[in-house]
Amino acid sequence: MVQYFKIQEQRFVPAMALNEAFWIHMDNPGTEEIKQLIERFNLEEDYITDLQDADENSRMEYDEGAVLIILRVPLYYRHKSSTIPFATAPLGIIAVQDKLITVSFFKTEVLTQYLEGKHKPFNITQQSFLLQIAFRTSTYYLKFLKEIIRRSNNIEIELYQSMRNKEIIRLLRLEKSLVYFSTSLQSNEIILERMQRSRWLNQDPDAEDMVEDVIIENRQAIEMTNVHSSILSNIMDAFASIISNNLNMRMKFLTSVSIILMLPTLVASIWGMNVALPLQHNKYAFLILMGISAVAAILVVLYFIHKNLF
Predict the structure, then answer these.
(1) Of the candidates 128, 130, 127, the residue with the CA atom closest to the CA atom of residue 111
(2) pLDDT tens-digit profile of 277-292?
(3) Element counts in the chain: helices (H) and strands (E)
(4) Distance CA 233, CA 225 (A)
């Protein structure tokens, strides 16, 4: 799907045709739409097709008047069937002629407020809009990081009450999401610093201050990701130790019970043999033997209690 937007009173409003549009947004475009765009602006084909790869790295390229910037943006999978709740994907931003083109093959919320015209008015240029998108990207990383923290805290509380595989798997998925965030944020930081030094960005006199704000926001997200990735990793290690300790305690308990039950079994086995044995003609033989077994078992139980084996 291709959408056109023009500038009206420092806001984006829908445009009817490409010629009057300043911003062109391509959301999961088809083959024909990609072909038309490439031919219309004489773009390299891989400017668009590379974005179909979910693992495409952030980068910045110049080619015959066109500037390509690829940022890694955060995704939030709301369906419970998703293997991980949060991930990242590439968002392509192309500055060509007097237009800015954004291309995404993955569902992201970063551009939503601009698509719906709900953003604050600002002096819209190619450079300023690009930096607005980059700043919005960092903001969403921070937003999703707070959600990851909230979920991990809830899972931690559940783990204190019940050591189940379900909670451990949920923590592993959150930890995986943090790895994606950390890698993508560091990749974005390299591109932002390269943009800061680029002549194209400095064509906008307001861009210098804006890019510094974006870099600071991105670094804050990196630090927050690293801190909580470390915390989550420590939580996983702690609960792995607790689970291992609980297993050892249970095995020790079951071993002690086995030893206690072995004593009556041993007595019963000896007096069950077809040979002459003491008390075999005594009418109280059964009670005496059961008494001996019980006393021996009780003594072993008291010994285990004294040694904290229970």
Answers:
(1) 130
(2) 787 777 787 888 888 8
(3) 7, 7
(4) 12
- Measured CA to CA, the distance from residue 32 to residue 25 in angstroms comes to 15
The radius of gyration computed from the CA coordinates of the chain, to the nearest angstrom, equals 34
Task: Give the least confident one: 48-62, 118-132, 221-235, 237-251.
Answer: 237-251
DSSP-derived secondary structure for 198-241: -TTGGGSTTHHHHHHHHHHHHHHHHHHHHHHHHHHHHHHHHHHH
Q: What distance in Å separates the CA atoms of residue 264 and residue 262, rounded to the nearest whole number? A: 6
Tokens found for residue 5: 């937007």
| C-alpha–C-alpha distance, residues 29 and 32, integer Å | 8
Burial of 176 (0-12, 13-18, 19+ CB in 10 A): middle
Q: What angle do CA 193, 195, 201 make, to 5 degrees?
A: 145
Residue 81 has pLDDT above 60, yes or no: no
**Is the Cβ–Cβ distance between 7 and 100 less than 8 Å?**
no
Q: Which two tokens stand for residue 52?
A: 């179909």
Report all structural domains of the chain as residue ranges with CATH numbers, in order of start: 2-244 (3.30.460.20), 245-306 (no CATH)
